[in-house]
Amino acid sequence: MKYIQCCVFASLVLLSLSLPAVAGSSQASYLKMADNFFIVYDPSTSMDVPYKDSGMTRMAMEKEIIRKSNASLPELNWQAGLYPHWKGGLWLSDSPHAFAPFYRLHNYDKKAYGLAVDRLPTSPAGPPMLQIALMKLEHLLGIAGRTQVFLFTDGKDSRVKGVPEPAPLAETKKLAKKYDVCFTIISSASGKKEKKLLADMAAVNNCSQVIDFDTVAEHPEHLLGKLYLDTEKNFGTVLFDFDKYLIKKEYRPVLAKAGRFLLKHPDSYAVLSGFTDNIGSEAYNIRLSEKRAKAVRRYLRNRFHIAAKRLLPYWYGYAHPVADNDTPEGRRLNRRVTINLRNK
Fold it and tell me: Do both 85 and 158 map to the same domain?
């Protein structure tokens, strides 16, 4: 999807004196990074297990993650939906009720979406049916713009003998080829087979990824964080040479400042957003921006021993440039990773 440059900044701030307050952010500071989103809720029996020492099942924690993430989301005129993998007893039917929504696809409204989250069940509906969720998504993705799908799953699916159903990976590949869609897979997989399946599903295109369930349980804001940027909370920026993702020596001070902050404030975490200039294909630049965001994460982990779950990478390719891509200087400023430091 081609993104239109919506904001041009006179300069990039490489160092900030303090962490901006979350409450101080205004609607004007947010940049919308997708047009639509779906959350696909897993109500299967495999989620009906205790989650660590929380006193909750994994399914109840799943609901709590979505509730808190919705509470942290600004209202930026998305089209949004909230759907289950399936509804018990109806997966054999072609009826649309087999994928009946809790929030039918339409304009996002935080309060209404929150009420829909309140209706999510915490009792299991039946066995895991990942393939059904993916099959039903095909009827929802024919909408304009880029769509982010947030899919909760442990990588398991139950096939019904005699019923033709595509494998989850084959269906994911089909959707990625046919639509402008990115998958964020929230994984509670424990077996090698299931983990490999989810990794393969996330590899169907350059904008999809797997996130560990524990990460979003600890930082629910991360679930929907890829939908927007908050420019007011920019702690620092790292720039890169053309077609490179090597950390240059001149940007070690800003990374050191971020690392020291994270060590001093154990309840904080960093959002690392990677970007490129507009030379090359969209697919290539998305992958390059991913490498840049992960290079910054790797640097902070190696030098400051920050836990991976506190370093959250996103990548956007050449979306939302901060300077004119028609000039060498503008392209230099667009080859960047922005660092946002946030509190829980």
Answer: yes
Residue 44 maps to a domain = yes
Assign 282 to helix, strand or coil: helix
Residue 218 burial by Cβ neighbours in a 10 Å radius (0-12, 13-18, 19+)? middle
Same domain, 280 and 168: no
pLDDT band at 320 (very low <50, low <70, confident <90, very high): confident
Mean pLDDT lowest among 178-182, 251-255, 266-270, 334-338? 266-270
Backbone angles phi, psi at 216, to 5 degrees: -75, -20
What is the distance between the alpha carbons of residues 62 and 81, in angstroms, rounded to a whole number? 16
Q: What DSSP character marks residue 21?
A: P
The DSSP call for residue 274 is E
Question: Residue 25: what pLDDT?
Answer: 52
Asked if residue 19 has pLDDT above 60, the reply is: no
* Cβ-proximal residues to 5 (8 Å cutoff; 6+ apart), any chain: 320, 321, 325
- Domain that includes residue 107, residue range: 33-225
Segment 31-78, tens digit of pLDDT? 888 999 999 999 999 999 999 999 999 999 999 999 999 998 999 999
Angle at 201 between CA 198 and CA 207, to 5 degrees: 115
Give the number of domains in the chain: 2
